[in-house]
Amino acid sequence: MASKNIYLSQLTGDATYTQIVFNKVWGKVEADRAAYPEKKVFMMAFGDTSQPLPPTVVQGLVNAATRLGDRETYTGYEDVTGNPDLRHAICTNYYQKKLGIDFDPAELFVTDGAQSVSVNIQELFAPDNVVAIPNPAYPSFVEGTLLASRKLVDLPCHESDNFVPKLPQENVDIIYLCFPNNPTGSVATREQLQYFVDYAIARQAVIIFDAAYSAFITTPNIPKSIYEIEGAKKCAIEIGSFSKMANFTGLRVGWCVIPHSLMIQNTVPGELNDLWRIRHCVKFWGTANISQQGAIAALSETGQLECQEVVNYYLKNAGVLRQGLEKSGFQCFGGIDSPFVWLKATSGLSSWQFFEKMLQSTGIVGVPGCVFGNCGETYLRLAALGHREEIEGAVENADKYFK
Ligand code: PLP
């Protein structure tokens, strides 16, 4: 007799981020729209991209589709760890030329975005491993840990520390870090990341570093990759994504790096990389070949320049949003090296009360900070990945909050 997965069923109801956003946030917006059909709503809840793909990427996709339509150039299944040209381009054009970090392409696995690998990567570790997760955090880290039924240790993040967590107080085996951070928009300094790397090496723990927003870093000396930190290749797995750096949220391409030198107890160099290759062969047969060709085009010299223009557009959005809200009297964080602005609730309001007041008075829709963990209580996350006119409209309306 089959029985349901109890860990999965504990995520039903309003237990997951997606359900809360689509049911509760969206439900409240719909109710507001029904009550005030004339009112303009500024949707900044979703971290989805809005701008068209850069021309070089489009051309890469068109060329790939054309090749697939020709018997002479048609290709089917590819290397399940990713198109070798793409792995090579990520190693050379991203890690080597941009960041001065050397990898063998075999240390890299192409994925269908950062989302799935950020959760699935836990399969590399023993079931009793303890997972440390910043609070607030990107929800999948927590949801994936619950699904795997692992013990979870909270790492509270506070305004006073610029939302960078302190080291765990108890022994943990896996540590999630995400910088630039979703939801707070904060970044971590070299010194702060060095503490975590030193901690991980000393305890044979592994850092899962989500660098999905690395392209948004503009502040000098802020690391874009965990591997800019000394020792990180011994203790860290990095997850990257084309979603926000090249507008690939629909095309679905990301990667993860499992360095040969990453080691934990009872392993030899290269073993974790080998294990992940096996897991890849069993459970994942690669990303769409067309999408991978788009990613190769995105990493060409022209492709990179065009992609950075799109990132700059979102960064300008975030700047306009943050400055406009500050001018109206709000206290804001993030929005400088990140497309997310983390807005502090006005005095005495909870995240949800702030969300409601913001929606009712200004039409601005964000995600209540408490949805990302209880330390996000009294904040609201706004995503500046939409169209500039929307952002400007929102800023013009922001004053209404205080009237
Ligand atoms: N990690 C973080 C921190 C994110 O914010 C997101 C998407 O919003 C993801 C991962 C998933 O990105 P992808 O589209 O590459 O799956």
Plain-language structure description:
The chain is of the alpha/beta class and 403 residues long. It folds into 2 domains: 6-52 and 304-402, Aspartate Aminotransferase, domain 1; 55-302, Type I PLP-dependent aspartate aminotransferase-like (Major domain) (Aspartate Aminotransferase, domain 2), CATH 3.40.640.10. Helices cover 39% and strands 13% of the residues. The chain is built from 12 helices and 13 strands. The chain has helices at residues 6-9, 17-35, 55-68, 84-99, 114-120, 139-147, 190-203, 271-283, 289-298, 301-328, 351-362, 388-397, and strands at 42-43, 108-111, 131-135, 152-156, 174-178, 206-210, 236-241, 254-257, 332-334, 340-344, 364-365, 367-368, 379-383. The strands form 3 sheets. The chain has a 7-stranded mixed β-sheet with strand order 2-8-7-6-5-3-4, with helices on both faces. The protein has a 4-stranded antiparallel β-sheet with strand order 9-10-13-12. A two-stranded parallel sheet has the order 1-11. Helix 5 packs parallel to helix 6 and helix 10 (301-328) packs parallel to helix 12. Pyridoxal-5'-phosphate (PLP) binds at residues 47, 113-115, 118, 138, 178, 182, 210, 212, 241, 243, 249, 254. Its EC number is 2.6.1.-. This is Aminotransferase. Keywords: Aminotransferase, Pyridoxal phosphate, Transferase.
